[in-house]
Amino acid sequence: MRLVFRLLSAAVILVLLAFVGVLMLPGDRLAHIASQQLSKQLGRDVTITGDVSLAFWPTLSVSTGPLEIANADWAGDTPLLRAQAARIGVDAASLLSGDMRFRMIEADAPRISLVTDTSGRGNWELTTAEAQQTEAAPAPSPSADQTPAIPVFTLDRLRLSDAALSYTQAGEAPVSMQGVDLDLSWPDRQGAATLNLTLRPAGQPVSIAATIARPAALMAGQTAPVTASVKAPGGTASYDGSFGSLPEAQGTLSLDLADTAQFLAALGVSGVEVPQGLGRRAKAKGQITLTKGTQLALRDTRLTLDTNTLTAAADITLAEKPRITARLNADALDFSGLAQGGTGGSGGSGGGSGGSSGWSTAPIDASGLAAFDGEISLDANAIDLGTLKLGKTRTVMTLDRSRAVFALNEVRAYDGLVTGEFVANNRNGLSVGGKLRASDVELQTLLKDAADVTRFSGKADATLNFLGVGQSTAAIMSSLKGDGTLKAGPGRISGIDLDQLFRAGGAGGGTTVFDTLTASYTIAGGVLRNSDLLMTLPGITAEGEGKVNLGARTLDYLVVPTALNARDGRGLAIPVRIKGSWDAPAIRADMGEAIDRNLAEEKKELETKVRDKVTEKLEKELGVTVEEGESVEDVLQRKLEEDATKGLLRLLGK
């Protein structure tokens, strides 16, 4: 029993001596040991300089001056990490075993330099091979089927406060960030690590929380299971899947953005104004695959952009200008927020009653056309564009160097079918154009939505080729040029009753029912001109010509209906002039034109009688003879010249 007591006493004494030995260990000596162990475990030279002090509670730790962790040999002379001061906590028992275990490392205001080379290798990838390399015998590059050995590294907690971070990709300008905070916990080398990171790309904090299931594999350049979330003003994002340092990833990505513009601004993408319908509020969830940092695939993705819900699949090449190939499907989409409305501009109001509010003069921001190149197809059952309402739509947008071409493969609209293409080009200022074909569309609803004109109804076929240039809707409408055709019938024109016009002479009110209507037109300088309108009704034909100022929203148009059986079959024409703002034009019979068209023979006969009487009077009073083909004005001029000549001769005595 006494022997046992002596052995226990000896053991206690040894432990106490060891503990006292640790307490008596000079701070600079402990700092030196710590730097050696860190160098060994990280595979990088770790240098600690400056004054050193010890603390024993709550963890045995050493507070140091400047601390540096060397960079990879291929990444330049700038240290991977440089801090003005650091605190290093160690497990006291591990000091006795000679295998130091780090409990805590804290660094104040460190400067961190992250670099990748052309192969995607990062200078933060730590391997024991680096520690073994010498200038005389550099280690060969590991083959593709070899897994680099990673350092034997244990750390309960790493804290970085107010760090400055610089990230440089090969061939790219460095990206810098200030005010970075990091809290990393990895107590078990074979276990998971948790990370809490705060970034301030634009001043506001962006919090990132992540759990890495196998950090050792990630440090060795392999993939590891990762769950991560991002919280920033305006929304959150999360990821659950695998991640590798190439970078590469495969997993589920989710977004929940209450304010997309605010969220992007917090990430450093400021000045983004998202139109209503395209994701001022957005939610998304889908499967992503990132390969070698440049190829991103999205599958089984569901997007909610404001009130719009879509399913999507996309392949994206990540570059300075991304290239996107995507397919979108949706039920009903509301893009009415894209419409340029309002009372901007100085749209003219012509004669007649009423006025025009004018097209919007607000600048159109078409910079989004330069965001990427690629091809996006869209299938939707309905689309509300604000001014236009579309039914089932199949379209493909091809975007190349700020020029978007929309191939309208099938657009069901206004009870008809629209096909063709629409082009928006912002390479050298904004221009819009297109070649459109419409068949069996309902005129009343189409013209009401497109131009706020409600007088026409009926089915129609039409073609339109157009081009407009300008940075606002008003400028584009005032610059339009092109041509087109229209064929309609049967249909109605409200506001004018041609039958009543012939019976009672009144042009206003009522409705005209027509059998067919055909016309062609040209557009130049925002003014549409037509000279061959032909409309047929029972017993009546109507011709038309005139112009519509698309920019000023006014028209001056003459419609000439003719009653074919009137005046013993010679016909009776009563021209009607439609003039003024197209919102409320004045409609009235043009009596001057009516006289010219209906009384041409009588007018000619009357002119002959008057001429004969004037000629007879001139011959009698002035003694002159009116020659055939000579006008009265010519006769009077000749008589005056003769009299002036005679008077001048008398003055000269001749």
Catalogue the unreliable spans.
3-26, 129-148, 341-356, 643-654
Quote the beta fraction: 35-45%
Task: Report, as a whole number of angstroms, the end-to-end distance.
Answer: 178 Å
How many DSSP E strands? 35
Largest β sheet strand count, sense and barrel closure:
35 strands, mixed
The tally of domains stands at 4
Give the overall pLDDT as a whole number.
Answer: 80
Q: What is the rounded Rg? A: 44 Å
- Overall body shape: elongated
Q: Helical region count?
A: 12
Helical content stands at 10-25%
Structural category is alpha+beta
Domain AsmA: 12-171, 355-532
Pfam families: AsmA (PF05170)
GO biological process, one term: regulation of protein targeting to membrane
Protein name: AsmA protein
Explain the overall architecture.
One of its GO terms (biological process) is regulation of protein targeting to membrane. Residues 12-171, 355-532 form the AsmA domain. The chain has 654 residues and is an alpha+beta fold. The protein folds into 4 domains: 31-119 and 152-183, no CATH class; 186-318, no CATH class; 431-589, no CATH class; 608-652, no CATH class. It contains 12 helices and 35 strands. The longest helix is centred in the N-terminal third of the chain and has 23 residues, at 2-24. Mean pLDDT is 80; it is low at 3-26, 129-148, 341-356 and 643-654.
